[in-house]
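Lab notebook, bench 4. The sequencing result for the construct came back, and we need a structural model before the next group meeting so we can plan mutations. Quick request posted to the team channel:

Model the 3D structure of this chain.
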Amino acid sequence: MTAYCSFGNRSHLSLHLPAFANLTEADREILDTVLNRRVRVLPPRHDIIREGDRPGHVCFILDGWAQRYKQLADGRRQILSFFVAGDLCDANVFIPCAMDHSLSTITQVQLAEVAKPDLRELAEAIPRVGEALRRTEQVAIAIQREWTTSIGQRTAYERIAHLFCEMFMRLRDGGATQGDTCDFPLTQSDIADATGLTQVHVNRTIQEMRRDGLIELRNRQLTMHDLDRLMAVALFNPHYLHLDPAESQHQPV
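Done. Here's the predicted structure in token form:
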């Protein structure tokens, strides 16, 4: 069941976008007003929009985790990306065509639905917001390139390590980590579908990372025991995320 509410507080998005453009306080207030017009609360593991649907709005994640995926006729699934608070859910949002993939929640999610005309008007009225939205999409495309490289070239150990590094860095940039620990609601099935591996292979690889003293994954929380070494193992270079240098203490390896 879908619930509707007012988000009330300053959205993660209006806090996240200044990393991509120099938004003024007035810009942020206008952005928050637009985002608060229609806010939905969706339960875990619930489709936001399905392949073949024609969306009339754009979704912004205000809280929780979501995913983009493709599902084959026989039920096999490929996860294409993960979304956390502050993320715009879809690229090419102004193209008037049916969805060629699906979006679903992983945890309970609060999301803002912004009508496409409203988003166009916002981007035209405040060019800095338009610039920030374009740059968030550029980052999304860069992440997709990294995922393609992982599936094509990285080993299983490197793929999973890279995913752990990426999600931890994204969450830390959004202020959603506690020291070396972050919430991590992905199941081993989710990790398998995102990395092109079997669940058995994912389980064995995570156990190996534990034995190597790199991570601990327990009770839906991920702890980085040695982030620098994990980044080196994963061949992880965070430059593609375009994190605010003031928020990132780690340099590319």
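Confidence is low (pLDDT under 50) at residues 6-10, 245-253.
Will bring this to the meeting.
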